[in-house]
């Protein structure tokens, strides 16, 4: 028996329960990990609230990220051995391969040996955010030196990761946040410019920063009415990648900006990377090299002990954090 977090109904953080569960041996292509650290993600909150792209079947596990020590391997596993220090690249199904627990069975292709310079805490805080940012900014937008990228909801772990991915190729980051309360923290985290959207004119500020050209790339997790403003702040032939839906409202389609500037607006999910073996290999190489060199440096907002999993996810939902929330075992 091992302690696993499960939930038996949709709801707030109170539905998360730590239960004693019998975990089977790893399947032929799976690695069993003794978990030392768990990275928390907003997708898990949405899954728990029945607002995600997949629906839970009860009782359900959850969790996309973790780091720990290999405890056992399946008969077909070739790349790992018992005792290896590893971290988890998010899988396609958190209910099947949930990471919230003392043990987790994970498919081999979603496991990596993390660089020796990373702690378990840092390793558990890396792969969701860097795969998401890399897939959008590098793989799809072809971000390059001299480009400007607008990163919305910039204090999230993915937002901070986007700063580092952008800087690794010589691009400049314009971070947006609702008020000035997080301005200095975002600058300290690597943003080149910060715009408080409730207090400043987004379009005017972006045009001032970019010398009137606009931003070629937008990396947006909010959606809703703000998309029209973002489109008006973009450069000709720019691309807006929508990877979230934090706004509960539907915004107008910015047809005039799209037509006048030949813009591309695209929905984007990290699954586009992890569902493609060659793209996943490219992501692993870019991110592993960045982590080892220090160009990518996971920012941890706060850690919690495993027994405080409810408090940890409440803090995630508070939007007070700058960076990643990690649960330690």
UniProtKB/TrEMBL annotation:
It comes from the Bacteria. Keywords: NADP, Oxidoreductase. Gene3D superfamilies: Medium-chain alcohol dehydrogenases, catalytic domain, NAD(P)-binding Rossmann-like Domain. The keyword GTP-binding does not apply. Pfam families: ADH_N, ADH_zinc_N. Residues 11-327 form the Enoyl reductase (ER) domain. The keyword S-adenosyl-L-methionine does not apply. This is NADPH:quinone reductase. It comes from Bradyrhizobium iriomotense.
